[in-house]
Design a protein that fits this description.
There is one protein chain. β12, α12 and β13 form a beta-alpha-beta unit. The longest helix is centred in the C-terminal third of the chain and has 19 residues, at about 300-315. This protein has 13 helices and 13 strands. It is about 35% helix and about 15% strand. The chain folds into two domains: about 1-105 and about 300-315, NAD(P)-binding Rossmann-like Domain (Rossmann fold, 3-Layer(aba) Sandwich), CATH 3.40.50; about 110-290, NAD(P)-binding Rossmann-like Domain (Rossmann fold), CATH 3.40.50. It is of the alpha/beta class. The structure holds (2R)-2,3-dihydroxypropanoic acid (DGY). (2R)-2,3-dihydroxypropanoic acid binds near residues 59, 84, 107, 295 and 296.
């Protein structure tokens, strides 16, 4: 860690951020940056909570009740770099008098783009084709080579109708003529349903009817293993599951079994139950596309996420309302 010195608020940034945003933090605050970009240990996080006025964590920092419940905490703000905040125990943070913010909105397009990319890659067997070609095993064009499934005009089930779910639905409907089904605990506005020509229905009915199911709900106690063996058994044999939300929404072992046994046709995953580790059975299967949590991973978006976190830091230390405060109960 490298440190600047002054009476300005001390801000610990737990991972490397785009340089332009780190420079702005260093201008405005007593910034402490992670030059090695190694994930911080629990001991380092505990030290940061004792020393820093604010911490800017990411999905790789588990800020649970045992860390946030320690005595002698100086930190008053967790300005998360990311929209998902399931790695932060919000109740423990509130009990410790720590505000929490996130970075919504700025990563919607990139994450929806990536969901669409996984739909196409999985249905059209792009991962299998690329692996075959790189392995020198492509023998040339032939009419029955690596036949995938057509995406245009198929039925897409969106689980979770927040910004990213709806952005994915718009891409699929207006770009690929897909018929949209939506399941959402918090409901969908009639204007959105009519814009998309979409149907709102319960999860079970959605799973039974969709050719592709794309997950966009947050990770909560209610959504843990929402897609388990029973849910997978409802899906048609050729259906595809896409997850760009959080890994623990899916029972990864049950998914690997369903894929191996022909229970479903394929899966496209960007997130995993125990990141960065991935269930070996999934790694061994051909009909799954695996990406390393790249949903928001464009230069433009990662800068925008940093600027969003910076806006939250700046407002907090100016005693202004926080632009993106998060509370314990959030809609999907
Ligand atoms: C997000 O913003 O939630 C990304 O998944 C990284 O945490």
């Amino acid at each position: 860690m490298s440190e600047g010195g002054s009476a300005r608020p001390r801000v610990v940034v737990t991972r490397r951020w785009p340089e332009a945003v780190e420079s702005l933090i260093a201008e405005r605050f007593d910034g402490v940056f992670n030059e090695t970009d190694e994930p911080m240990s629990r001991a380092q996080l505990a030290d940061a909570l004792a020393d820093a006025d604010a911490i800017c964590p990411t999905v790789t920092d588990a800020l649970d009740a045992s860390l946030l419940g320690r005595p002698g905490i100086r930190t008053r703000l967790l300005a998360n770099f990311g929209v998902g905040f399931n790695h932060i125990d919000l109740e423990a943070a509130a009990a410790a008098g720590i505000a929490v913010t996130n970075t919504p909105g700025v990563l919607t397009d990139c994450t929806a783009d990536l969901a669409m990319m996984l739909i196409l890659m999985t249905a059209r067997r792009a991962g299998e084709g690329e692996r075959e070609l790189r392995a020198g095993e492509w023998s040339g064009w032939r009419p029955t080579h690596l036949l995938g499934r057509k995406v245009t005009g198929k039925v897409l089930g969106i689980v979770g109708a927040g910004r990213i779910g709806l952005a994915t639905a718009r891409r699929a409907h207006f770009g690929f003529g897909m018929h949209i089904l939506i399941s959402s605990r918090s409901g969908v506005a009639p204007s959105v349903l009519s814009e998309l020509g979409a149907e709102q229905l319960g999860l079970d009915a959605l799973l039974e009817r969709a050719d592709v199911v794309s997950l966009h709900c947050p990770s909560t106690a209610q959504t843990h293993h929402l897609i388990d063996a029973a849910a997978l058994a409802r899906m048609p044999e050729r259906a595809i599951l896409i997850n760009t939300a959080r890994g623990d929404v899916v029972d990864e072992d049950a998914l690997a079994s369903a894929l191996a046994n022909g229970g479903i046709g394929g899966a496209g995953l960007d997130v995993y139950e125990h990141e960065p580790s991935v269930t070996q059975a999934l790694l061994d299967l051909p009909n799954v596309v695996l990406l390393p949590h790249l949903g928001s991973g464009s230069e433009e978006t990662r800068v925008a996420m940093g600027l969003c976190a910076l806006a939250n830091l700046t407002a907090f230390f100016a005693d202004e309302p926080l632009p993106n405060r998060v509370a314990a109960a959030q809609p999907d």
